[in-house]
């Protein structure tokens, strides 16, 4: 478990970033990845603040906005705005430069940006997909764990809006990376607050119980299906 207050922190010009994994100047050999997940950065940008063009490669970038509006521009010529309730997926497998900023000069922006390593097959693909935006009405499905983005077979991002007392079950197989983005929940008898992270290795059923009105993000990395054994005739 990683408590929100224990995350690495980077403070820049109008930007505060809290990292759940080793990132940039923060390095911990025991905290560099969880399955294919390489980064989970919670970003807080002052009005008008942002990142100038910078490059990523060999990674899938997934962004979830919590409050405010994120303006995105990249080297493919794509421009767009990402709002709460939207998930943005940008493939930087072959290398991509992008810039991000707070689209408002009055309101702060808070978002979570996550980075997932592509599979070997995806890295070999000469035509990675263009940036994609998907809108989700979580308000219309409160109390359920929804599949909001499937990067590939066995790699899925789930999200849920929960009212106090709601209970959802996490996937049982493989690995689950759970982050509380709003409110308070309980997992395995432990209270988690906004910003807290718990990493679960598939060892039977695990449930999330909302203590207050809450929002959670959960990456599920399914266990590989073993190849069938062949018996001798």
Automatic annotation (TrEMBL):
Give the cofactors, semicolon-separated. Answer: Fe cation
Superkingdom, taxonomy of origin: Bacteria
Cofactor binding note of this UniProt entry: Binds 1 Fe cation per subunit.
Q: Does the keyword Metal-binding apply?
A: yes
Q: Give all residue intervals belonging to the Quercetin 2,3-dioxygenase C-terminal cupin domain.
A: 149-217
Q: Which parts of the sequence belong to the Pirin N-terminal domain?
A: 13-114
In the record, the note on similarity to other proteins reads:
Belongs to the pirin family.
**Protein name, per record:** Pirin family protein
Name the species this protein comes from.
Mumia zhuanghuii
Which classification does the entry list for the species? Answer: Bacteria, Bacillati, Actinomycetota, Actinomycetes, Propionibacteriales
């Amino acid at each position: 478990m990683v408590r929100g207050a224990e995350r690495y922190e980077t403070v820049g010009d109008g930007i505060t970033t809290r990292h759940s994994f080793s990132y940039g100047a923060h390095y911990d050999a025991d905290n560099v990845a969880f399955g294919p997940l390489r980064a989970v950065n919670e970003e807080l940008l002052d009005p008008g603040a942002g990142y100038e063009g910078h490059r990523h490669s060999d990674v899938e970038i997934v962004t979830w906005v919590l409050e405010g509006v994120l303006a995105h521009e990249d080297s493919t010529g794509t421009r767009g705005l990402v709002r709460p309730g939207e998930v943005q997926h940008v493939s930087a497998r072959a290398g991509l430069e992008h810039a991000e900023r707070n689209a408002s000069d009055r309101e702060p922006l808070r978002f979570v940006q996550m980075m997932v390593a592509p599979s070997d097959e995806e890295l070999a693909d000469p035509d990675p997909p263009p940036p994609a935006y998907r809108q989700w009405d979580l308000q219309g499905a409160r109390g359920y764990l929804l599949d909001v983005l499937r990067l590939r077979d066995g790699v899925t991002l789930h999200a849920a809006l929960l009212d106090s007392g709601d209970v959802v079950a996490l996937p049982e197989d493989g690995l689950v990376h759970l982050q509380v983005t709003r409110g308070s929940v309980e997992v395995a008898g432990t209270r988690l607050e906004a910003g807290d992270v718990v990493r679960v290795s598939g060892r039977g059923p695990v449930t999330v119980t909302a203590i207050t009105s809450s929002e959670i993000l959960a990456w599920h990395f399914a266990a590989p299906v073993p190849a069938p054994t062949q018996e001798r005739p």
